[in-house]
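User: My notes are a mess, but here's the protein and zinc ion's SMILES. Can you give me a structure?
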Amino acid sequence: MSVAPHVYNNDRRYAVLVVDMLYDFVYGKIKTDRALPIIPKSGELADAARSADIPVFYPNDSHMRRDFEIQRWGEHAMRGTKGAKVISALRPRKKDVDIPKTTYSSFHDTRLEKELKKAYSGKGANTLILAGLHADCCVRHTCADAFFKSYETIVAEDAVNSFTELQYRTGLQYVKFWYLTDVFPTKKIVKLF
Ligand SMILES: [Zn+2]
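Assistant: No problem, the inputs look usable. Here's the predicted complex:
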């Protein structure tokens, strides 16, 4: 039904985004066991990117009490707390870029776009590869803003998840259909590097 445009096929400049793999999301206040199997895959993806000089970004919730989203979820990933830290298995490395965010999209009121434009000696990244939580929320809303801003997106299907299988599947189906996102296993993505 939908056909990915692949407009950047001749000049791929990737960036990897590891979204919200934080203590509160994996082990804490809004934890889900469904986050556990995606830890090694997210790590694999980030490592392969680093080895290929592909920039790695960590868009992470960093909430204040005034953030509207707190009304929906209660306090989680509060700025400065352990709950807002990336889990140790996926600890960011020196060159990785932390992108604090206050709601679902990694672009909303963040430095992400500016940082993406700085990559590749100022030529900017044009294709975002997403891992992390949740497939139908922060991943999906980041794909939405990426689409609005003319980035192509790839979601690592074994490196994202949601609270339920249904949410996971509908999340992926949604981004494929509306944003022409490619949904590939990590194994296939790292071969593109
Ligand atoms: Zn949040």
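The chain has seven helices and six strands.
User: Great, I'll file this with my notes.
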